[in-house]
Amino acid sequence: MSELSQASPSEPSQDPASPGESSEDAPIGVAIIGGGPAGLSAGLQLVRANRRIAILDSNRPRHSATLRSHGFLTRDGASPLELRRLGREEFEAYPTAQFAQAMTREVTPLSHEAAVAAGFPDGIGFRVRGSGIRGAADVEFVARRVLIAAGLTEELPALPMIRAYYGTALHSCVECDGFEKTSKPLALIGETSDLFARALLISRFSSDLIVFTNGAETIRPEQEAQLAAIGIRVERRPIDDIVGEKAEMLGVRLADGEVIPRVGGFVRPRWHAPVEFMGELPLERDDWGLVVTDDRGETTVRGVYAVGDIVPPGPQQLIIAAGNGARVAAKLNMDMIRGALGVGLVDE
Ligand SMILES: Cc1cc2nc3c(=O)[nH]c(=O)nc-3n(C[C@H](O)[C@H](O)[C@H](O)COP(=O)(O)OP(=O)(O)OC[C@H]3O[C@@H](n4cnc5c(N)ncnc54)[C@H](O)[C@@H]3O)c2cc1C
């Protein structure tokens, strides 16, 4: 059935299959890559717009290192896994929702003719392939649009024991976990140029803060003087490791053997956008490697959108990822309506 033939008052869906049809092979409206708060929130909005939606999720959320997530209104302190479970249940309650436990391997554009033949009236479409994980089957979808909500992978400073304290004593999101560290002796560990700004942010929670640059020249002398003026010291010597007893962090050991007592703090990972599945498609990235979009959420590949931590300014919070997921879903829906009618892209 063609997409335009669906656009009658009795059938509000503009996807090429009716809501309620359950054929797994039927073309879909949007393939969403990533089932975190950004992808799930977008998915919920789009199934509620009578779209046939598939979420492919590899189940590796960045915040799986932590036991409690903070600051999500009505769910402050909830476990991140519980949040995802609730989100998935709400999405899957709709008949046009499909959730695949799969790692997306490949996104390839359809030719104009193939897209039209699939029932996509604006001639834009994609084939999305994923490998099943945890025993799930491999999947393949033909979709009008793609939404990348794959979050970020992170690389912590190369210290042998740092993972043991990450998500408990050491965190990366100051807004998420600063409150619990109020007035404690803290470390900020990182090697990137935004360390100064992060130190200022952490100073809201504790003035007993030492910034460890691990030998990197990332804080300028005038910034060091500004930090010193509010009691924050910069430690430039290389770090050997984090030390502690069981789950309790006790300090930062420098390469020269000195241990500086600290009970926790923040680390600045290096973030990577996992978009290998886009292959050679011309996906613009910024200097940090994040996926660039216009203000509607569309990337430099027509028909491919992105949202959540993977887009600038980078990692924020669950509620922001979810909110932006809903915002971009509305733009995607309008893009498909306008594409079906040939009335241009931009809202008037
Ligand atoms: C340790 C830690 C603690 C945090 N604590 C808080 C907190 O307390 N409060 C708060 O508000 N925020 C917190 N955050 C930040 C929050 O987790 C993120 O801002 C939020 O999860 C971003 O949502 P997202 O949907 O963009 O990405 P994610 O939640 O990372 O979800 C992305 C999903 O995409 C999947 N994926 C990736 N690649 C593929 C692929 N190729 N195919 C299929 N699926 C793929 C991943 O497996 C993952 O499930 C924390 C982050 C960390 C690291």
UniProtKB/TrEMBL annotation:
Segment forming the signal sequence: none
Disordered, as annotated region: 1-31
Reaction(s) catalysed (UniProt annotation): [thioredoxin]-dithiol + NADP(+) = [thioredoxin]-disulfide + NADPH + H(+)
Alphabetical keyword list: Flavoprotein, Oxidoreductase
Polar residues bias locations: 1-16
Pfam families registered for this protein in UniProt: Pyr_redox_2 (PF07992)
Ranges for domain FAD/NAD(P)-binding: 30-324
Domain of life: Bacteria
The protein's name in its UniProt record: NAD(P)/FAD-dependent oxidoreductase
Species: Leucobacter chromiireducens subsp. solipictus
Taxonomic path: Bacteria, Bacillati, Actinomycetota, Actinomycetes, Micrococcales
